[in-house]
Amino acid sequence: MEQALERIVLVGKPNSGKSLLFNQLTGLRQKVANFPGVTVELKSGKFDSYELVDFPGTYSLEAISEDESIAIEQLHHAMQEINTKLILCNLDGTKLERSLVFALQVQTLAKKHNKSLVFTINMMDDLLRFGHDIDTEKMSAQLGSPIYAISAKSLYGMSEFTEALKTHMTHPDTAKIAASEEENQIQQDHMSLAKSIAAEHGIKPDIVLKKQNHLDSFLLNNILGGFSFLLIMLFLFQSIFTWAAPLMDAVESAVGWSGSMVVAYLPEGAFADFVNDAIFGGVGAFLVFVPQIMVLTLIIGILEDSGYLARAALICHKPLSLFGLSGRSFIPYLSGDACAIPAIMAARTIESPRKRLITMMTVPLMSCSARLPVYALLIAVFVPDTQYLGGWVNLQGLVFFLLYFGGIFTALVMSKVLNRMVDKRKQSDLPFILELPSYRWVNWKPLLYRTLNSAYQFIRGAAPIIFTVSLVIWVLGYFPSQGDLNSSYLAHLGQFIEPLFAPLGLDWRYALAILISFLAREVFVGVLGTLFSMDNADENIDGLAAQLQADGLTAASGIALMAFYVIALQCVATVASLKAETGKKRYSWGVYIAYGTLAYVVSVACYMLLS
């Protein structure tokens, strides 16, 4: 049995540079897991010959949210474990008093369990820029624990700190945390001691806030702030098309070239048809859209790391409150643009149980990354790539923006409806409190890692489903007639459900793709890729979009189909996540049925109006 590594536990308040410090110490060699029985993430990596565990950021050991409660409970558990050798507590040097309140609580807890503790004062690059330094020796003597001044971003003091950290692990010293006059004072009044130490060593808040307030006066202005917010969101969705287009073309060319090279070495027959049509036609059509998901993750990461994302939540609080939501609902809503499952989990931080439930039930209306392949495919079919303003704006990007806006608008309307339906007793008196982090330059290395990892996770999660569905569809479509769709098993199944989708102007192939896409929305593209590759295998057609266009998909049917996917909850994993978070089947399956019915009615109405 492999012996567990000795562990370093990394703690600190949110927006303190803790995650960047973790990335620097582990070199991005890390894994993400969940606490037992819950979905709060726990990151771990290897530092030297030790395990470094990054706990979620918390402001206090007195929890005010479910996330904090779980993290604090697990921190107490980690303190009791014998392989936990050191507590590494990260402080925000620009907001020292606020960081010290939590740090002193952690120090008291470490003393109770006889654990060695080390402090880091992070963001020293910002302090030095303002000409401020910290006497770490004097502060260490006051606190009774070693203190190291570092910048995880500029690497200031990092080499000395990493060597010192190894020394602390090989020669743990808990004597400095033993009971003393200072420690007794900490136990009596953490806030008083934090205030006095911060006043002596910390930088004056008005110096740090001067530049931040200058930017906030513009970005949080009632008029200019809202206008800039809309421009930033428009830029976000325009970039998905503008920046991702070359990468999509490269992937499409690579898939097509690989398919032709592989098939050239295979003997003619069923296996060659399977490789060409099911693998490269079905799975390949899905891979083309991965660059768009990466661009979306990259832009959202830039907004988050720069400090703007918190401002966006503040801007959104007042309008969201009109629909029974909190400004914190903006974060799950924006996360829902990547995937509804982590977005539903992110709603745990919302202070009101009532608003939390409404947010979770409306998050599936956000246009997640799994919808991207569907939108991009249908837009490419019937929306011309017309350029405006010298190429800065194109018609496809505008339609893309409207689709996302349609999901947001529907979510807000449903929030208003649910606000009247949800039990009025599920209300909380907790106020809306949000810390505004300092504006910072983005650290590109961990952000690019997150971007690549999002693509990997998306492919890993979707590719097995895509392959399985493509295989099943190909078999049903190829047999018993050796590729003649009109007399295949698939044709019979599609024709059976075709009348349901005839009011949208769609034939059995689209009906079948919609039905199967409940497994995962992106399966829709894989199914059509398989179907149309088989239907047109001998023709020289450049891509699935061209095949649909040549097949006669009308603008009315295409818009109706997009309207359906904007609203419908076509994701079994999201239904399962709703069930797990709410604990009630009537919420999860009720949302699925309600959104499916609404999507069908709206899509039929769109088709009738446009045709």
TrEMBL record:
InterPro entries: Fe2_transport_prot_B_C (IPR011640), FeoB_GTPase (IPR050860), G_FEOB_dom (IPR030389), Gate_dom (IPR011642), GTP-bd (IPR006073), P-loop_NTPase (IPR027417)
Residues in FeoB-type G domain copies: 5-175
Source superkingdom: Bacteria
Transmembrane segments: 218-237, 278-303, 362-383, 395-418, 458-479, 510-532, 553-577, 589-610
Keywords associated with the record: Membrane, Transmembrane, Transmembrane helix
Pfam families assigned: FeoB_C (PF07664), FeoB_N (PF02421), Gate (PF07670)
The protein's name in its UniProt record: Ferrous iron transport protein B
